[in-house]
Amino acid sequence: MKKMRYLDNVVTLRLDEATCIGCGMCPRVCPHGVLELFDGKARIVERDLCMECGACARNCQVEALSVKAGVGCASAIIHSWLTGEEPSCDCGGSSC
Amino acid sequence: MSEKKSCCPPKTAPENPAACCPPPKAADAVAEKTACCPPPSLRERPGYRLWSFVSGWMNTEVGEIPQVRTKLDWGDRVGRWQMRWGLGRMRYRIAPGLYAVGRPDPQSPVLVTANYKMSFDALRCELKGRHLWILVLETQGINVWCAAGKGTFGTDELVRRIRATGLERLVSHRRLILPQLGAVGVAAHEVRKQSGFQVIYGPVRAADLPALLNGGEKAVTLGMRRVEFPLGERLALTPVELVSMGKITLWAVLILLVLAGIGPGIFSFSAAFSRGTTAVAVYLVGVFAGAVLTPLLLPWLPWRAFSAKGALVGAGLALVILIASSGVGLFNTLALILSLAAVSSYCAMNFTGSTTFTSPSGVEKEMRRAIPLQAGALLLAGIFWLGSGF
User: Taking every annotated instance into account, which residue ranges of this chain make up the domain 4Fe-4S ferredoxin-type (chain A) (predicted)?
Assistant: First the structure.
């Protein structure tokens, strides 16, 4: 079965290739194969498969990666619109 | 209980894995399978609750460590079923700290997991015949991925738990194996800096752990590092999706019954009942379309936005109902199509939170477009439906 994809051109993932030291951690922790290592540098190969989980940025020791990570839960986002808080799974929804 | 040889007295309530053997005194030098039940006097300690998965105790450098079984029993399965229906999820947690599988020694690997019992169960049942340590973090009973997203399965908790358990005295090596999805909350380089332990990210699924344990990190294939979202997983998530609609459903039923009574005679109880129950049935079909059918059909439905997929399924079901029924009038026809599409669309949009590939930025973008359309469709449906009552 083909890989399920979500909306295109929305993700906030950014990679500063100049800062990257090619440690290879980001391709290892990415659950969707968004990043790959080429000639000792990480590269974003499948940007639209990114789900903004934040694992790559969290484990980048030189902070070459950045992403606005968060929960993609509709009820959490509605809750955050109403209250102005960051979306979180604690909004009473039983998911997660 | 499926355990053949149990030295503990039979439990009265199998769904409550109540205390059977509290940890014996260190002096008892236990850890032998036969000694899992100390004399009754020792068992009578208040405040202890022991899970049925504990088979014995190991006396170690850092104190008594419970040995856990690698086979799920009947109680574990009932618990998993309850979790799938969202029953008592917040209480389904085990104590954080160290656990032993088999008879590990200072060279044995250390696996790290969350204290959601379903996560712990998924891990231990893949470890048959092995000897290793499990370090359980306090994640408030939340699974690894979600807890990592919140940061409770994170660098701070891991470093704190390493110190609190005295792990550096228990094992001679300095390696920890974490589930890959824990990387969302744990920064490997920070853990090393703060605790001296090297974090190795294992496969996503516990079922692939044997590959890592047998063949080392290079044996973890790309496929073991990828998250898919197969039919079985989507199906497993639908009950809790339905349960989460429970509260809003109660309100919807109440409002629909009241609105149904409005007609030429101001309010009619018989109309409230006959038209109201139909409306409630339509609402429930909409929830089913959005929270069950759409998730199941996900990869085969057109468009990327979940709200669009849900609307399509809802409208499609409405057409099926219309074809099967013998004409309901123009107003009711429009009301049925619009309301089913709107309810299904909303429920489907909610399912984004349960999937493994939607980004928060995308969900927010989709919601900004979809919610006004859903509200508009619902309003129109309401007008048509009320209009048909006159």
Answer: 11-40, 41-70
How far apart are the CA of A67 and the nearest CA of chain B, in angstroms? 10
What does residue B128 show for φ and ψ, rounded to 5 degrees? -60, 130
Return d(Cα B142, Cα B152) in angstroms, integer.
9
Cβ(B218)–Cβ(A24) below 8 Å: no
pTM over 0.90, yes/no:
no
Mean pLDDT of chain A: 85
Kindly list the distances between the CA atom of residue A15 and the CA atoms of B100, B149, B181, B260, B292, in Å, as whole numbers in the listed order.
41, 21, 20, 56, 38
Q: Which helix (H) or strand (E) holds B100?
A: strand B97-101
The widest CA-to-CA distance across chain B, in whole angstroms, is: 84
CA B366/CA B358 separation, integer angstroms: 11
- Per-residue pLDDT, averaged over B324-340, amounts to 88
Which chain A residues are closer than 8 Å to B149 by Cβ? Answer: 53-54, 69-71, 89, 96
What the block records as the tokens of B21 is 């053997």
Pairing of strands B110-114, B132-137: parallel
